[in-house]
Amino acid sequence: MLAAPPSPAKPAATGSRPDPAALLIWYDRHRRALPWRALPGETPDPYRVWLSEIMLQQTTVRAVKPYFERFLTLFPTVADLAAAPAEDVMKAWAGLGYYSRARNLHACAQAVVERFGGRFPDSEEELRSLPGVGAYTAAAIAAIAFDRRAVVVDGNVERVVARLYTVEQPLPKAKPLIRDLADGLTPEQRPGDFAQAMMDLGATICTPKSPACGLCPFREPCAARTEGTQETYPRKEKKSSGALRFGAAFVAVREDGMVLLRTRPAKGLLGGMAEPPGTEWSAGFDPAAALPLAPFAAEWRRLTRVVEHTFTHFPLRLTVYRATVPASAPPPEGCWWAPVATLDGEALPTVMRKAMMVGLEG
């Protein structure tokens, strides 16, 4: 007789269920102070909630804080953001990464103004109709901004739930199961606080390494803690990194302190961002053969220092060429000259800032 397959998740330990009320008591005492989070008794601002959720996708709280505060200074309301030139939005976002988020952020603000009179809708269905708002973000906004019961599952929540129920199925395949288990935990009362409490629990107590189980309000019903296997959850499939790609960047510096820039195509990786002219990136590209692809004829000098950068799906190695040209040199079509002194204000992504630094120091 064949044995039954292992269950993808076990019941919580000691026969008890995790109690949302216990988590909320813990949250009321230990909640994190975050610039986008309403204080106890305050009504959450949907604009702040939405802006923070978009910025926090694939990005740490520490990295997001200064960008969030800068955006509120530049664009205090969703109407201000919608009316801003796209170039200004991209400049403000430069360095935060995943630049399609910035384009969708601007498009979403315009949609909120045009379709909803400048007020964010409060239902998950209508929120999902907005550019750049997927199932998770819609649930987070509905719960946190409007206190609607919604199942909010980010990476922190996945870790908490996977340990509570010792979910054996690896991520990302386990996502539907973890969501169902989180659904069973989400209360009707204070769902917004519950969502933020789960996030805080994962960020401060149920951490990836060395979780502080003795301080956890779910320590008794946690199956992984009972087994002593908490650091092995969630299970994850091994990721395969993409092949190394190569390319070249051309840093042209005018004698009057100007540097040549252009805008990347709107669609695709780093879409709409600024960059020094460069080549395609591919595994078979030979940087030694890059000169015919330079933006104009000049005395290009290949620099010994290369730029290395890792994207989500592949690593990149850029060879940098530099040329000094007369102050009267016109920019090629589609390019412009920008003062070196004001490059911090240009919408240069991190990899291009690295290339500019190498070129200017070369």
Beta fraction of the residues?
A: 5-15%
Largest sheet: spatial strand order: 1-5-4
Helix content: 25-40%
What is the distance, rounded to the nearest whole angstrom, between the alpha carbons of the first and last residues? Answer: 72 Å
Name of the CATH first level of the largest domain: Mainly Alpha
Q: Characterize the overall form.
A: globular
Question: What's the overall average pLDDT, rounded?
Answer: 93
* CATH level 4 superfamily of the largest domain: Hypothetical protein, domain 2
CATH architecture of the largest domain: Orthogonal Bundle
Which structural class should the secondary elements be placed in? Answer: alpha+beta
Rg result:
25 Å
Write the element-wise H/E pattern from the N-terminal end onward. HHHHHHHHHHHHEEEEEEH
What is the domain total for the residues?
Answer: 2
Major beta sheet summary? 3 strands, mixed
Q: If helices are DSSP runs of H or I spanning 4 or more residues, what is the number of helices?
A: 13
Under CATH, the topology of the largest domain can be stated as: Endonuclease III, domain 1
Low-confidence stretches: 1-6
* Number of DSSP strand runs: 6
Function: Adenine glycosylase active on G-A mispairs. MutY also corrects error-prone DNA synthesis past GO lesions which are due to the oxidatively damaged form of guanine: 7,8-dihydro-8-oxoguanine (8-oxo-dGTP).
Cofactor: [4Fe-4S] cluster
Organism: Alsobacter soli
Family: Belongs to the Nth/MutY family.
